[in-house]
Design brief:
With about 425 residues, this protein is of the alpha+beta class. About 30% of the residues lie in helices and about 25% in strands. Strands 1, 4, 5, 6, 8, 9, 10, 11 and 12 form a 9-stranded mixed sheet that branches. Strands 15-17-16-19-14-18 form a 6-stranded antiparallel sheet, with helices on both faces. Strands 2-3 form a two-stranded antiparallel ribbon. The two termini are about 25 Å apart.
Length: about 425
């Protein structure tokens, strides 16, 4: 089972939360962050390159130093204040008609090392290194990771009861997404939550934040090696996460746009597709795939449906059966010559939150030649892949809404 603990969050006073809270560090570029960051915004801590004119490279030592300086200043000014006792927290996000409710806690780095925190994506060392530096210099997890776990009825009931009360925070962000936050500080409830996770929850599944998870585990291992009195109970062994029951989550589509047809004209390309797909023109109106192994394609002002022919994938292969794998193998690689999704500059990826209109816009602009929309991966597929130790292809899952940064911070002291 997983190991968890409550923590004394460093968080903004209620009246300042909308000024401090910010989008995650990796959803904005530096120019966007600079333009939206108010005086108290956490972006001055997570993207401190914006405090320089001109904006510095984010790996510049002066940027790291500024991050530490700003974190200390936010606390000295009372914009971030440490909780008086260790608590659990309930965090609800609303996007449109859907609300997802999770619990904010600290997970243990040993669970990542032993595989009880399960991943479904590979990480890049350069991104891991950058996140590790930020954890190390701040001695804190400034932003949370996003985990899923298999539903537990009693945990669901505890969260529902907490969320029936008056929230500590309640606001709507610039995207129209709602954020509500409750504190669980009752000792008996805190103890019961810890018991339920350690007795009943077999694993956490990384939904979003693979690099932050890996970085936290590396910092924990580093501190362990430096402490001859290490017991495993020290605060540095734990890192901050928001954990959602599987049933609360929905994965959005993650789509592809490609710059050229690899030397083929339109007719040649469609002919090549017909070796593995039933191709049907659907007209100029957006066509959305509505089942697994069915794709939509936008090319020369028209939408097409692509239905995968029988025998083109193995139902028993948890990776091979994924639509991202089918598209990669039969179209991107075989026809378009794109061998490595991580490095090939001819392909780009568009999260489902942007809508399929973003695909046609990028093709119509001349920036891209063709676009492909995929039916979203299910939580069951994600869990099955993680449980079998497999890794999904790059850019497979898109979770929305993103966790808001600045609502809570975990100190490693």
């Amino acid at each position: 089972m997983v190991r968890v603990k409550p923590f004394a969050a460093i968080r903004p006073p209620k009246n300042l939360v909308t000024e401090v809270a910010a989008p995650p560090y990796d959803v904005l570029n530096s120019v966007e962050a600079k333009s939206m960051a108010g005086e108290k915004s956490l972006l001055h801590i997570t993207k401190p390159e914006i405090d320089f004119d001109p904006i510095l490279e984010d790996h510049d030592q002066r940027v790291y130093d500024k991050a530490v300086e700003n974190f200390k200043e936010w606390q000295s000014r009372g914009w971030l204040v440490r909780e008086k006792k260790e608590c659990y927290y309930v965090y609800a996000q609303t996007m449109g008609e859907r609300t997802q409710v999770g619990i904010v806690l600290c997970a243990h780095t040993d669970d990542y090392a032993t595989g009880r925190i399960k991943k479904h994506e590979l990480t890049r060392k350069d991104k891991e290194d950058d996140r590790m530096i930020h954890v190390r210099i701040q001695n804190a997890n400034i932003e949370p990771v996003f985990f899923a776990y298999k539903d537990n009825e009693e945990l669901n009931a505890i969260m529902a009861k907490a969320a029936s009360g008056i929230p500590e925070y309640d606001f709507t962000d610039e995207n129209g997404f709602g954020h509500r936050f409750w504190v669980i500080d009752d000792d008996a409830t805190v103890t019961r939550i810890t018991e339920l996770f350690t007795e009943s929850v077999e694993a956490f599944y990384v939904a979003d934040g693979h690099h932050r998870t890996a970085a936290a585990a590396r910092v924990g291992a580093e501190k362990k090696s430096q402490n001859p009195e290490h017991t495993g109970d020290e605060e540095y062994n734990f890192f901050m996460s928001v954990c959602f029951p599987e049933s609360q989550l929905k994965i959005l589509d993650y789509n592809r746009v490609v710059k050229d047809l690899n030397g083929l004209d339109k007719d040649q390309f469609i002919k090549a597709l017909e070796a593995d797909f039933t191709v049907k023109e659907e007209g100029s109106e957006i066509f959305t795939p509505d089942h697994l192994h069915g794709f939509s394609m936008y090319l020369d002002g028209k939408w097409y449906s692509l239905e995968t022919l029988p025998g083109r994938f193995d139902d028993k292969d948890p990776i091979g059966v994924l639509d991202v794998t089918i598209l990669s193998n039969l179209v991107l690689d075989r026809i378009l010559g794109i061998k490595d999704l991580r490095t090939d500059k001819r392909i780009d990826f568009v999260g489902g939150i942007r809508g399929l209109g973003e695909l046609s816009r990028r093709v119509d602009s001349g920036e891209m030649k063709v676009a492909f929309a995929l039916y979203p991966v299910s939580m069951k597929q994600l869990i099955d892949i993680a449980d079998t130790g497999n890794i999904m292809p790059p850019k497979t899952t898109w979770f929305e809404p993103k966790l808001r940064s600045g609502l809570f911070i975990h100190s490693l002291d």
